[in-house]
Amino acid sequence: MAATAGVSLSTASRVLNGSSRTVAAEYAEKVLAAAAALRYTADASARAMRRASDSIALVADDLTTASIGLVLAAMEREARTVDAFVTVASTGGTPPRQLETVRMMCALRPRALVLTSSTLYADVLEGRLLRELLDYQREGGRVVIFGDTDMPFDAISVENRASAVPVGTYLAQTGHRRVTIVAGAADRANVSDRTVGFIDGLVAGGVDRADIRVVHCEVSRQGGFTAVERLLAGGPLDADALVCANDAIAIGAMSALRGAGVRVPRDVSVTGFDDIPLATDVTPRLTTVAVPLARIGQDAIRLALGDHQERRRTTESGELMVRESTGPRG
User: Which Pfam families match (predicted)?
Assistant: First the structure.
């Protein structure tokens, strides 16, 4: 219905359900024309459920990653303290799917929407996603974004670049001079920022930029495994450290190294980012950057259910955790 009329779900709802909020005549005419063409009939039981529910909707790029799993678990724990619950949906990180999913979730009238994505900008899809979110907010909902954004909502972000610098600095200080960065997908802003930070730290520590190689891969365990397999197919590994954009990539990389008889850290050091639980379960334990993912999930719910009027922005930093997957060189 809303798509046929070319308006947001909330605008269509106001016209069809007799809301007291004014809708411009041209949009009202489009909605009524679409309703007639589609032979729309209002559902009385659905109308009775128009009040906001006790759900908080999480809209994420990918629900299969360990890091988002930690965020989601913390959100669920916090929501239950106020008798709310969390519903989830995945978008694959594509703007059209983000818009479609947000529209669907708004129609279910959750108390709040939490969106997680590496970047969410106001001009995406010519501003249609922003307009949908603003309509939802005007109807009494609250929007929280976990990721980098210029949208006018509460937001939590991670200083990916600054948090990655200590990894490069530490490797440089421990004698590593030939480094390959397994950087994940080039179009993912969070892992791209980490790559820049790794390079900043390495160069500041005395590593020649010409001795830093960057390879891209899928942001997953399989992505790390495949990337390192390809590196090894070209002959002996020309690196004394593999710096991975997240822990899943690093764990895949370590598996590929083990299969090829390359010893970690004796032959090559490996680092990750995020500090997921598996980082301390693998052998050797993974040197990584600990991001406070549980606190981020908790804070997202507190922002979503808060009654503050001013926009709030929080930035989190990671902490380098040195473990057995790295060792000194020279």
Answer: LacI, Peripla_BP_3
Question: What backbone torsions phi and psi does residue 158 show, to the nearest 5 degrees?
Answer: -115, 135
Phi, psi of 182 (to 5 degrees): -90, 95
Q: Which amino acid is at 15?
A: V
CATH 3.30.530 fits 1-50, yes or no: no
Please give the DSSP secondary-structure letter assigned to residue 37.
Answer: H
DSSP state of 285: P
3-state secondary structure of 81: coil
pLDDT reported for residue 215: 98
Kind of pairing between the strands at 288-290 and 319-321:
antiparallel
The overall pTM is greater than 0.85: no
H or E segment to which residue 103 belongs: helix 95-107
Encode 8-45: b = buried (16+ Cβ within 10 Å), e = exposed: bbbbbbbbbeeeeeebeeebbebbeebbeeeeeeeeee
Task: List the one residue out of 290, 321, 318 whose CA is nearest residue 163.
Answer: 318
Mean pLDDT, the chain cut into blocks of 10 residues (330 residues total): 66 61 70 69 46 81 90 95 92 90 91 90 90 93 94 96 98 98 92 97 98 96 97 94 98 98 97 97 97 96 91 96 95
- According to DSSP, the residues that pair with 58 across neighbouring strands are 88, 114
* Residue type present at position 204: A
CATH class of 160-291: alpha beta
